[in-house]
UniProtKB/TrEMBL annotation:
Top-level lineage group: Bacteria
Protein name, per record: MMPL family transporter
Topology in the lipid bilayer: Multi-pass membrane protein
Protein source organism: Hymenobacter busanensis
Membrane keyword on record: yes
């Protein structure tokens, strides 16, 4: 079979594979599921899933914060009436289970055989100053109202909508749109409206993902096209690498669609990653091809030489780059696991297309017109650069040592810290809304404590209630909860109701006999919507729930440690056992694995590079020669994080593993070419010089593409994406400098083995 026939067959097979991928692309969906960020396989996750099956999820709600017009308070009759109208509207909406509002909250009072709900806010009497003052006094003295439904400054209210469990984006978006439309109809301006909860974040994240994915891919393609044009100055030098990248990207996304994983906050980066990472092999291959054809070599022989000299090194670099992504599959966080898996597979696919699709196209396309010797146009520059580097080798080594020591020192200051809305900037509208609830109300961070009475007791046993009350007091006074509810809340409310609604009667019964007199009403009141999720119907298990401002994971870890000490010292495990749970706890648990996952990823990469170096050179001394120039940028970026106060969190922990896997790519190309040159040149220095000229152009071009591509992520509104672009770009920038300065110095200082060609001649003799 001729070369042209083989090329046509290759294109036909790839076209059929592309058609199959297109069907999987149709199944792609954008997805943001808050639960996906829980640590999979964790015992606490299994426990929470059982807990939420009994009591409901702690994040199935929407907070609607409404501010009164300037100069008015929440007791303004017109404002209160609009809040009530909105409340009635929200109660009728699909997927709304219950609405707790300032205008429907009532003080239960038992008189005779009936229970009467006396509203805290009398809408029909707000025009009367005396009545308004009476309502205000009662509201601000009643526990659980201020900071929950009423703002501390009396200028805002919150309406809480309990939604159906695990509400997905389409129905969630419909609900949010209906609420916004009604509020607009009521004349409540956007600046007086604040929304909080999982549905809000879910809607905003997915919509932004769509926009940012399109923007980043467009910017990356334009940047890559510009750099490719400057490098090759031909249309095929631009379009052919982009064709390879497009094929690899389509293949990677097709795998995502086929698996049903969906495009989330992490996998949305896959196209950008492929635009900048997947093009490296094509650049190395085409650079070698241009060099050969520039010297007058015919197309097919030039392709054979280029494939022989590039395929092995590119294969090794694709292996290490993909391995950098594959190590992310050890993460217990599903979006990171999926991102590592599908991006790693896409990198391998880009390598396969580089050495199948690219040669086939070059055979079938007209031979590019070049002047003789065009491939050597950069030789003079690299010859002079290497000369200057070797003349100042002591300065280079000294600067590297200082960077290493300084980077390690500064990196030791990096702290592990995360918050529930970590990926949103401080001035983001959603972040500002959540901050509104933290400053004016109880906050948005949920707290959950499972109550497990012991010894055949129920949560309404007096001994259990007293211990639960002691826990509540600790949580509000020391831990920082601004709102708390538990079976104690139910019992106190019943006692108050039986005593005419008097506030001083809002306390636990003093004796078992008094508690027994409450039992009949207790069963009735515990079925009220705001109370029924605080205990199971049989009373054998209870829930202590609350909300607080989000102080950050490190602060919460200290608070939890203090809570555990309190529980051990002040509660009787034969009466009541407790266990922390909840969505916030699960998100915080991710931090416990960050350092382990990062070190594991880098460790696997280092081990792989070590094996490659040993196979190529049979020399242990060459291992640090290759590792040092690639670990140095990692240390420098760690130092930058420490100096600038950038915390280690889920989004930034993946940076080091990815950056090392990408940065080592050029080193692998360099040493694989060096191994070939050692068999052709009489000395190691001549081999290094020849390799420097051959690999230098591709190293600079691919690094510029990588740095430029990642820099497009700086325009992201997500902090995690922003830091991926900034820190990986900085890592690669430092890496290319180390590649062109420190690497040749270390090779010449350490590698003393006779050239490969001479060794083979000796063995043959």
């Amino acid at each position: 079979m001729s070369v042209r026939s083989l090329s046509y067959l290759t294109l036909l097979l790839l076209a059929l594979l592309g058609a199959a991928c297109a069907t999987s692309l149709l199944r792609l969906r954008f997805n943001y599921n808050f639960n996906d960020f829980y640590p999979t396989g964790d015992p606490d996750l299994a426990y929470y899933e059982q807990y939420s099956a009994r009591f409901g999820n702690d994040n199935d709600y929407v907070l609607v914060g409404l501010e009164a017009p300037a100069g008015r308070t929440l007791f303004d009759a017109d404002f209160a009436q609009r809040v009530d109208t909105f409340t009635r509207f929200a109660q009728r909406q699909p997927n709304v289970v219950h609405v707790l509002s300032p205008t429907t909250a009532a003080n239960p009072v038992v008189e005779g055989l009936g229970v009467f709900n006396v509203p805290y806010l009398h809408l029909d009497r707000l025009a009367d100053p005396a009545s308004r003052a009476q309502d205000s006094s009662l509201i601000f003295r009643t526990p659980g109202l201020v900071g929950n439904l009423f703002a501390r400054n009396a200028r805002a209210v919150t309406v809480l909508l309990q939604t159906t469990p695990d509400l997905k984006k389409p129905p969630g978006d419909s609900l949010m749109a209906s609420l916004r439309q009604e509020l607009s109809r009521l004349g409540i301006p956007d600046e007086h409206l604040h929304l909080g909860g999982k549905l809000v974040a879910q809607s905003v994240f997915v919509d932004r993902l769509k926009v940012e994915m399109a923007v980043f891919v467009s910017l990356s393609v334009l940047l890559v096209m510009g750099l490719l044009w400057l490098t090759f100055r031909t249309w095929w030098g631009v379009l052919l690498p982009l064709t390879v990248v497009a094929g690899a990207t389509v293949g990677g996304l097709a795998l995502v669609g086929w698996s049903g994983a969906g495009i989330d906050l992490m996998t949305a980066l896959l196209p950008v990653m492929m635009c900048v990472v997947g093009i490296a092999d094509s650049v190395h291959f085409l650079t070698r091809y241009v060099t050969e054809t520039g010297e007058g070599t015919a197309t097919v022989p030039a392709l054979r030489i280029s494939m022989r000299e590039s395929m092995f090194g590119s294969g090794l670099s694709a292996l290490t780059t993909s391995l950098g992504f594959f190590t992310l599959t050890t993460s217990h966080i599903r979006p990171i696991h999926n991102f590592g898996l599908y991006t790693g597979l896409a990198v391998l696919l880009a390598y396969a297309l580089t050495f199948t699709l690219l040669p086939a196209l070059l055979v079938l396309l007209p031979r590019p017109q070049q002047r003789f010797g065009a491939g050597r146009s950069w030789d003079g520059f690299f010859r002079r650069l290497l000369h200057h580097v070797l003349r100042r080798r002591h300065w280079v080594v000294g600067a590297a040592a200082l960077l290493l020591i300084g980077g390690l020192t500064a990196a030791s200051q990096v702290r592990i810290e995360s918050r529930l809305l970590d990926d949103l900037a401080d001035d983001d509208p959603v972040q500002l809304d959540f901050r509104f609830f933290e400053q004016r109300f109880a906050g948005v961070r949920p707290f959950e404590l499972n109550l497990q009475p012991q010894g055949n007791r129920s949560v309404y046993d007096l001994a259990v209630l007293r211990q639960t009350e002691a826990i509540e007091q600790y949580l509000t006074r020391t831990y920082g909860l601004h709102f708390v509810a538990s079976p104690v809340t139910v019992v106190k409310s019943v006692r108050k109701a039986l005593n005419g609604g008097a506030l001083d009667e809002y306390r636990l019964p003093a004796t078992e006999a008094e508690l027994a007199r409450l039992q009949r009403q207790l069963r009735r009141v515990s079925k009220r919507p705001e109370f029924r999720a605080l205990a199971t119907p049989d009373g054998l298990e209870g829930r202590l729930t609350g909300r607080m401002p989000d102080p950050g994971s490190s602060t919460v870890a200290r608070l939890n440690a203090g809570l555990h000490r309190f529980l051990r010292a002040r509660t009787d495990s034969t009466v009541l056992r407790t266990r922390l749970t909840g969505s916030a706890l699960l998100i915080d648990k991710n931090n416990q694995n960050l350092t382990r996952d990062m070190l594991l990823g880098i460790g696997v990469d280092v081990l792989m590079v070590t094996v490659i170096v040993l196979l190529l050179f049979r020399s242990l001394r060459m291992v640090p020669v290759v590792l040092v120039p690639n670990l140095l940028p990692i240390v420098v970026v760690g130092g930058v994080m420490g100096v600038c106060g950038v915390p280690m969190k889920v989004s930034t922990s993946i940076i080091f593993t990815i950056a090392f896997g990408i940065a080592v790519d050029d080193t692998i190309h360099f040493i694989s070419k060096l191994r070939l040159m050692l068999g052709k040149e009489p000395t190691v220095q001549r081999a290094v010089s020849h390799t420097y000229r051959l690999a230098g152009k591709a190293v600079i071009v691919t690094s510029l593409i990588l740095v430029g591509g990642f820099s497009t992520l700086l325009f992201s509104s997500f902090d995690g994406t922003f830091y991926v672009g900034l820190l990986i770009g900085l890592t690669l920038l430092v890496g290319v400098v180390a590649e062109l300065t420190l690497l040749p110095i270390l090779i010449l200082a350490v590698y003393k083995k006779p050239r490969v060609g001479r060794a083979r001649q000796v063995r043959a003799a």
